[in-house]
Amino acid sequence: MNGAYASLSGSYDGLMKDGNYAARAAFLVKRLRESAIPVKTVLDLGCGTGVIAWALYRRGFRVIASDISEEMLTEAVRKGEAPETGGDVPPPLFICQPMPRLKLPAPVDGVVSTLDSLNYLTRERDIRETFRRAYRYLNPGGRFLFDANTPRRLRSMDGQTYLDETDGNFCVWRTFFSEKKQTCLWQVDLFRLRPDGAWERSFEEHRERAWSAEQLREFLRDAGFSRVEITGDLSRKPPANDEVRWNVLAEKELA
Fold first, then answer.
1. The pairing of beta strand 108-113 with beta strand 138-149
2. FRET pair for 146, CA 20 to 30 Å: which of 23, 26, 28, 156?
3. Whose CA is closest to 181, among 216, 220, 211?
4. How far does CA 182 lie from the centroid of its chain?
5. Residue 88 lies in a domain
């Protein structure tokens, strides 16, 4: 993710209004509270601008949130300046770390990762190591909950152009899928309106890997997880054939 979100960080929340954050947070909370252990501490892996981290915090969880992008973490920390973020638990602790090199001071009761953050791990060794570290830092009986773009979705994006517009921002996404590498490349042009009335242009590239359900199950079981369940997005039902996003639950066996 070299350079990814360096320019988009300030515009990300506005461009992701279809992220369904409220429903996603509610789904995660419900599944966390069904864990075999009481869940008090949660890691948000690849937290981005911290929307989910702050949502979990407001529901009473102690949250550690990690991301590789300093710019996205800056936006996440700024959300703590809002007056409604007070609570009985400390605010989220935001740390800048690559997912495969995750280091925590202590284990957590749950791990979450949302909006295809794990698709950004395009090398098998990196996603395997990320799963191993999630397992290592998860207390026995804890759950690892994440979502992933399906191969069908990423493949369908080949050759597409998408336009997003918000107040003062205009974004053009061009997408290309490589069957050989099983990756989707986003080329992103962002135009932002400056105070002087001129438009400022920036460019970024993003890549996501199309991991199959079989690969995800294999990697998670090899990491040590005893139970792996893949469902449709925000659902407990098996994925439909045309599913564009999976929800994955992996459980660490009780000691």
1. parallel
2. 156
3. 211
4. 19
5. yes
Yes or no: say if 53 and 76 are a contact pair by the CB < 8 Å rule. yes
**For the sheet containing 161-166, what is the strand order?**
161-166, 169-178, 183-193, 199-209
pLDDT of 71-103, one tens digit each?
999 999 998 876 555 568 899 999 999 999 999
Q: 78 lies in a domain?
A: yes
In the chain, alpha helices (H): 12-15, 21-32, 51-58, 70-78, 124-136, 151-156, 213-223
> CB burial class (10 A; 0-12, 13-18, 19+) of residue 46?
buried
Q: Which helix (H) or strand (E) holds 193?
A: strand 183-193
Kindly report the CATH number assigned to the domain that includes residue 243.
Answer: 3.40.50.150
If you search the block for the tokens 């369904």, which residue do you land on? 20
Number of domains in the chain: 2
- Residue ranges in the chain modelled with pLDDT below 70: 1-19, 82-87
Instruction: Report the number of secondary-structure helices (H) and strands (E) in the chain.
Output: 7, 11
Quote helix, strand, coil % in the chain, to nearest 5: 30, 35, 35
| CA–CA distances in Å: residue 156 to residues 149, 172, 178 | 11, 17, 11
Which residue matches tokens 């997880």?
225
CA 11 and chain centroid, separation:
17
Alpha carbon of residue 105 to chain centroid: 21
Helix (H/G/I), strand (E/B), else coil: 174: strand
Is there a contact between 247 and 234 (Cβ–Cβ < 8 Å)? yes
Note whether residue 138 is domain-resident.
yes
The structure tokens 């998408």 sit at: 162
